[in-house]
C-alpha cells in the first residue's frame, strides 16, 4: 500500500508527463501545419472542373467498402440500384449520403462486408457500378 503522500506524488508526476506529451503533440501539429501544403477552395474547384463525369471510386478497407460517385445534375440514375448492386455483391449498406456542389452531385456510401470469409469482389462491384452510372 502506498501512502497518501506517495499517491499524490505519483499523480503529480503522471500529470506532468501528460502535459509534456500534449505540448509535444501540439508542437508537432503546428510544424506539420506550417510545412503541409494547403489546397484552397478555389484550387479544389479548379480540380473538380477538370473531372470527366461521372466518376466511380471504390475503396476497399477489408471488412468495409466506401463508394464515392460523382455525377452531373443532368445524369439521372436510381440510387437504390447502386445499393442493390452492393447488396447483390455481398455488402450491406451502413450509411449513404449525398451533397450537391455547383452542377455536381457527390454520393458517398459506406458498406460492411456481410460474410467476412467470402468478402466482396471490388473489381466486379466497380465494373457493375460503371455500367450502371455511365
Automatic annotation (TrEMBL):
Domain of life: Eukaryota
Gene Ontology molecular function terms on file: DNA-binding transcription factor activity, RNA polymerase II-specific; RNA polymerase II transcription regulatory region sequence-specific DNA binding
GO CC terms, sorted: RNA polymerase II transcription regulator complex
Stored PANTHER family: ACHAETE-SCUTE TRANSCRIPTION FACTOR-RELATED, TRANSCRIPTION FACTOR BHLH167-RELATED
Protein name: ACHAETE-SCUTE TRANSCRIPTION FACTOR-RELATED
Organism: Salix koriyanagi
